[in-house]
Structures are given as structure tokens and as C-alpha cells.
Prior knowledge:
Chain A is of the alpha/beta class.
Amino acid sequence: MGQNNQQTTSTPPSGAGGIVIINYGAGNIQSIKFAIQRLGYEAVLSDNVEEIINADKVIFPGVGEASSAMKKLKSTGLDKLIPTLKQPVLGICLGMQLMCNYCEEGDTKGLGIFDVDVVKFSNTMKVPQIGWNEIYNLKSELFEGIAENEYMYLVHSYYVPLNDEAIATTEYGIKYASALQKDNFYGVQFHPEKSGDVGEQILKNFLNFKL
Amino acid sequence: MLTKRIIPCLDIKNGRTVKGVNFVDLRDAGDPVELAEIYAQNGADELVFLDISATEEKRKTLAELVMRVAQKINIPFTVGGGISSVEDVELLLNSGADKVSINSSAVKNPQLINELAAKFGSQCIVVAIDAKQIDGEWLVHLVGGKVPTNIKLFDWAKEVEQRGAGEILFTSMDHDGTKNGFANVALAKLGTLVNIPIIASGGAGNMQHFVETFLMGKADAALAASVFHFKEIEIMDLKQELKNNNIEVRI
């Protein structure tokens, strides 16, 4: 469980567009930026359409409430842009949830990239789920080098039910999808930027995807 | 399964750790970032930074520290101490804190919990409650447990949940510093009354105390300071002991 503190310098993973973190005023963007720096890369925060289109990798973060986050996306036109992106896109936490068809939170219509509805955890469990939980049934190159049942840090009240696009499963009262993939779009419910070395490896895998 | 969390707490004054720490491998025992890194390496699940300084410069110093911590450590951390407004919280979250903890300001202005939860989401709002038993009744105390109120612990816990708190950090002033174990009876009762995670704090003295607070107190997480700072308990040893007692932990 050591840490990766070596500030190695590297060129961006591929191409010239670099890594863009979509900045729409939602949540803890600094943590993702810092995690990428710890891996030796640089990321820029941007809400600029051109910059996002030309990026090699796009990270779509999000912490907070679904309907207000969606309002912010709509106000800048990013809701139209994101589903059309061609490069690898990684939605994290609420970012992933907003990429789904619908979020029960705030009765919010999502971006419709993932064909599934986001629903609330049952009251038989403590809500929000906060803490470290296992991911298993790993089915994507996103998890290359990651063992089954590693622990990831999660904090959320709504979840994505298991579906055909699930690439990781987690159990909290029920089994649910803790990661999704469809074509170039990836989503993780956990916070790779806060999940120790294993989480950083997942981020690194994403950043190293070849176009 | 979701694991039980072990959370070391660092007291911060003017950007430096206070209270003694006894880490031979530290270059600078006062640097919170260095200590945080060691805890992250040694298996801590989360960290809490409690700012106890009261200077004019406080906000800026704390935000700078939060940013340095966020740059270096790859586990979640909470910042608390003297937070009293939406602006305070915004600054800390934008600096890289994952959660904030509010205490006295929530008692004085309960609406603050609603405002913070609406703006930032419940998941990053921890309400810290310090309480002490007076004539058999658990009463909420302010100013680090020094000033009693008439507010009943269990009523207040239900109210903060209803107002949007995502987590409760409960410190028993009767147990804090005694090293005689956590307030497991009160914790277990809290667990039946609210449906958000509860962090137990106050009274950790040995590994068995952690076992008890998870099994008897039904806590979701346990916080301690001196037993970790003075290396009386190594976090990995503690987690192994918890595992031996069939308590789910991240090892």
C-alpha cells in the first residue's frame, strides 16, 4: 500500500491534445488533477468545446447532486458535446451516473450513453455508502493488472443496476455495476483518484489507452 | 463487502501538527503532509485534519495545507475546525479536501447543514457531535466539549441526518482521553436511530477497543489520535486483529 510520490516527467500519453478534465463547476476536480500529476502527467481543466474535442483523453468528474450538475452541463452545451466524443472518456462517480439514461436523483434525464437508469440504494442499508468496497467480475482493459476483489473508495447514495455494459461488480445490499463501458466511454462509480495505488493504476491504464 | 474504516486524526495549528507524535521515520514531526503520507502508506483508510488554530490567517493557512495534502496523498481526507459558512467549505473543497466536518457552527445555525448539503452534496458533509452524559442524559457540548448545551445527543443526531448530513462523527467526552474504550452503548443506540454512517471517536486505548466498537457499538469507522501518533497501535496490526475477529477490513 505504498504511495507513488515520484514526480516522473512524461510526455502526454499520445497525440498532442493531452488530458482534459471537464470543468463544469461540479465537485472535487483538484483531486483528479493531483492524482494525474502523481502519475507524471499533466491535465488541464476546461469547459472549452474545442479543447475538449481535441483532447486525447477526457475525464468527466462529478460530485454532488445530479439535477443541478445536469443544469450546469446544459448551460454550456456540454450535454450535447459529451455523447459525440470519439476519444476515450472516463466518467467518475456522478460523472458516470450522468452518462446513463436517467438518474432518480432530482428526476434527471441523463446523457443516454449507457442504456440504464440510476436508482437509490434501499433504506435497509446505510445511505450514502461511504468507504472501501470490493470490485470483481472485472471485464475491461481498464482493469489490466488489477486483481479481482481489490478495494476501491466509494461514496454514493445512488447506483447503477447490473446490466450488459457492466465491467465491474460491487455488493452493497445488492450486487450493482461499479463500472461501465460502451465503445470509447468508460464510467467508474468509485474514486480511482482516492483509492490508493490500485486506484492510481486504473487511472494510469486509462491514460495509457492507445487511440 | 464494505469495510470498516480506521481513521487517524491529526490536530493542526497554524499549518503544523500539534500534540506529540513519535514517529522515528519522520524528518519533521510537525509537518502534517509527511505524517499523512506515512499513515496512507501504513493502511489508514481515511484521515481527519482538525484545525485548532484561531488566528486571522487561519483560513488561508488551512487551505494551503489542504492543497499540499491533496497533492501528496491518495486516500480521502476530511477537514474540520471552525468551519462556519458556505464560503469556508467551498475554499476547502476547492483546495482538494474530500469532506468537511462541522460542529459548533451546526449547533448554532442548523440551517447551515441544509445549505451545505444542497450546494455540495451530503456525501461531503460530516457533522461532528461532542457529547457527555449529565445525570444519565447524553447532552451535546460545544467548543471542543467545554460548553454544555441542553440539546440531547440522540435528538440532534436525528436532526442532522434529516437536514442532510452524510456522516456523523460522534465523540464521547466521557471517554475521550481515557484510553478505556469507545462509548459503545451510545454508539449502538445512535446506529439504530440514524441511517447514515457513524464514526466512533474518543477512548481508543488498545486493539480490543476497536474490535468492541465495531461489534458492540456497530460503528462504521473508528477515529483515534494518540494511539497511532505514539505508535502504541500499528494500523496494519490493528487491521489484522479486526480481521481475526471476522470484521471486514481493507488489508
